[in-house]
Amino acid sequence: MEHPISRFRTTFRAVRASAALAAIAILALACSDDTAAPVLPQLLVAAGDAQHALVGTLLPIEITVELRDGRQRPLSGVRVTWSTVDGHSDVITPDGTTTDENGFARAHWQLDGTPGDHMLVVTTENGATAHVGAFAYDRPPADVHAMPMTTYDGSGQIVHPDFVRLPALWAGDPLRLVATPYPGGDATFENPSLFTSSNGISWSVPAGIQNPLEKPVGSYLSDPDILYDPDAGEMRVYYRRVTTENEIWMIRSANGTEWSAPVLTVHALNHMIISPSIVRRGAGDWLMWAVNAGTIGCGGRSTTVELRRSTDGISWSAPETATLSDPDGFAWHIEVEWIPSLNEFWAAYPVKRAGSCTTDRLRFATSPDGLNWQSYPSPVLLKGASPELYDVVYRSSFDYDATSGVVTFWYSGAKANDGVYAWHLAWERMPETALFARVNEQPPAALRTPGPAQTNLPQLTNETAP
Question: Tens of pLDDT along 370-419?
Fold first, then answer.
């Protein structure tokens, strides 16, 4: 008979041998893992994919790729090659020839003049590849013309126009325009100025007027709006005084040269009454639309359009929120007009993106009641339609001549020069049918949603936006 201790020793030796074999197997597996074929490095697009921009322009966001090894560690000092496909002659300007210490490589991408899809292929010397897409939209079908203006500061730079047509009994030219000088973004000159014209194209300062119509005390006077009151036989100009609040003031004149003392009509916290647009639809029927950007203003994620009502254009009701929305942004400086012959309101407004008010398009909407709005698939205008509007399309005004069926737009916008915007006006005239054909076009998919912030341009903030 086998002794019990002998059986124990035999069993222990067997277990110890099995454990040793298992350890050898584990060690072999570990060694096998270390000596297996390495996982190929990965090149990932970190920023700049799926952008859209006007043909021939620089994409707003710099293209950034990130190179990592099989264990997701950054690979530095690896040579990177950038190339376009499909025969495009896009210009690619890399920041360097290799990845940096964190595995990143960057390049600026300027599209050529070909509309449609563009593709950039990024490769590294160790075999990694990434693809970056972009969409180039063609220059808008517009016939926009420069509109030089003489400003009281001498710069000729001006923004935020608003138009009124005077009745035939009014002395002098039948057309008036108010706007504010804005030389290089200097708000100290941003004060309401008056201009006159016989044709809506060539404008001058009216005889007997010295601009600006009003000067501020310790702030600036922006966002002017002009209209005619047939009950009183006078012009009215509203404007926004900006302090810690938004104050909407009004002055009036029965002859266009002598103006009343300012009257405060409504006020709210700063950024909560932006770009007031006032309409007198009939006796005792006054309406004011304005943009509420919350307490943040330009940096806010969204805005709302609000409507106030009045019987005299001086005392205003509490605001009602209008239903106005677009897929590619939020209403910014708005202009509204009542079109009696069509029995509806029209609105034109640039749209802002979340966190920025550097606007690149002007949208259009109609409404039967001023509260419920229908917007249209395509913008009236995109940036780049003229040199004056190359980088920004901003607050604009319009007039519909029911007799001829012609719509005239007065646009404002800017072009960046060495990091500073130059602000100017431009005009365009078209039949009503052409306007609605333009805004009813189905835009390419890339233009149906907000694009990225234009990081290659100076960003408009509460301090720099008109």
Answer: 999 999 999 999 998 899 999 999 999 999 999 999 999 999 999 999 88
Residue 112: HSE in the Cβ half-sphere, 13 Å Cα cutoff? 14
pTM of the model: 0.78
| Residue among 289, 280, 222, 253 nearest 464 (CA) | 222
C-alpha–C-alpha distance, residues 236 and 222, integer Å: 15
Tokens for 297, please give them: 């203003």
Task: Point out which residues pair with 34 in neighbouring strands.
Answer: none
pLDDT tens figures, 100-120: 999 999 999 999 989 889 999
* Contact by Cβ (8 Å): 80, 65: yes
CB 149 within 8 A of CB 425: yes
CB 354 within 8 A of CB 451: no
Q: Is the dihedral of CA 71, 74, 77, 78 positive or negative?
A: positive
Give yes or no for a contact between 55 and 113, defined as CB atoms under 8 angstroms apart: yes
Tokens of residue 64, six digits: 């950034």
CB atoms < 10 A from the CB of 59, how many? Answer: 25
Question: What is d(CA 313, CA 215) in angstroms, rounded to the nearest whole number?
Answer: 22
